[in-house]
Design brief:
This protein is 67% helix and 9% strand. The chain is mainly alpha-helical. The radius of gyration is 26 Å and the shape is elongated.
Length: 315
């Protein structure tokens, strides 16, 4: 089974190359299904597969860029390139959805008889099975590699599967009832579904580009690592996190006794850094050392309130 392969074989780049191959295969199958049936529903299904191909190619490009090491112009690396992939895929999905609605509306007004539905349904189901299998593997690998590009491509493949399910249900309805307009209705339903998915992907991409905080489970691991140190001797505050593609960042203040030597303070900070990186692989920690009786203020609203209160005259 593919899912039982070692993680090193299921890298984002290899899976995206597989996605390109599957997209080409499904384009052939779904286009053939549309050709033999003249179904606008199957045409909408085939159009989405072209988006799968373009998205997988662009995602592969962005993942390749994201894996470049940090340089002088990009000291924090190129990890955010993956968010462009997710946003681009969302835009493509929205565009295709609008095209499907336009084609389906015309067919809704002028229904056309369908042909060779048995072959069309069989080809559609086969292509959906390929997409579903690949999406299942990509979701598992996306969690391991924390790749939003891989997750976006997997989500799009799942959307493609539901698209095919909707089309198949509509065609079966045509066969059972003889109502040709069900084909167009199924296509419009498919378009609305992928329109929602496209909007969701664009939202996820925008949140990543705006330095969204790390996931709740990652934050719990960070807090657990900090709690493992003697809270009576040192304390931590101003813990701020963000994520950038596969990379996670945390900034915090560490307060310690003022009479500690610099060497001792640096040694404890090193232990904290190791604990954090052990709890969250790939985490980059920035720790500011401060004496216990000193508070550092930033542009955090809580700090602004504290500062204003301190400046107010007392009576």
């Amino acid at each position: 089974m593919i899912s039982l392969l070692p993680t090193r074989f299921l890298t984002p780049k290899r899976l995206l190359r597989a996605s390109i191959g599957v997209a080409i295969t499904t384009i052939v199958l779904k286009t053939l299904a549309w050709y033999v049936t003249d179904s606008v529903g199957l045409l909408s299904d085939a159009m989405e597969s072209f988006v799968n191909l373009a998205s997988a190619i662009f995602a592969l490009m962005m993942v390749t860029i994201a894996q470049r090491p940090a340089d002088e112009a990009h000291p924090y690396g190129h990890h955010k390139a993956e968010y462009f992939s997710s946003g681009f895929e969302g835009i493509l999905i929205v565009g295709v959805a609008m095209g499907i609605i336009w084609a389906a509306a015309y067919r809704l007004l002028e229904p056309q008889p369908l042909q060779a539905l048995g072959w069309g349904l069989a080809l559609s189901v086969l292509s959906s099975a390929l997409n579903g299998l690949l999406a299942w593997v990509m979701f598992s690998s996306a969690k391991v590699h924390r790749s939003i590009a891989l997750e976006a491509d997997a989500r799009h493949l799942v959307t493609d599967v539901w698209t095919s399910v909707g089309v198949v249900v509509g065609l079966i309805g045509v066969v059972l009832t003889g109502w040709l307009w069900l084909d167009a209705v199924a296509a419009i339903g498919v378009a609305l579904n992928i329109l929602w998915e496209g909007a969701h992907l664009m939202w996820r991409s925008s949140q990543g580009l705006m330095d969204e905080a790390v996931e709740p489970d990652v934050l719990r691991e960070i807090q657990k690592a900090l709690d493992s140190f003697d809270q009576q001797t040192i304390r931590f505050d101003h813990v701020i996190t963000r994520r950038s593609g596969q990379r996670r960042f945390v900034d915090l203040h560490m307060h310690m006794p003022a009479d500690w030597t610099l060497g001792r303070a640096a040694k404890v900070r090193s232990s904290v850094e190791q604990a954090l990186m052990g709890a969250v692989p790939g985490l980059r920690a920035t720790i500011q050392l401060l004496p216990s009786d000193v508070e550092a203020h930033s542009d955090d609203p809580r700090d602004m309130n504290t500062r204003l209160q301190a400046e107010l005259p007392t009576h």
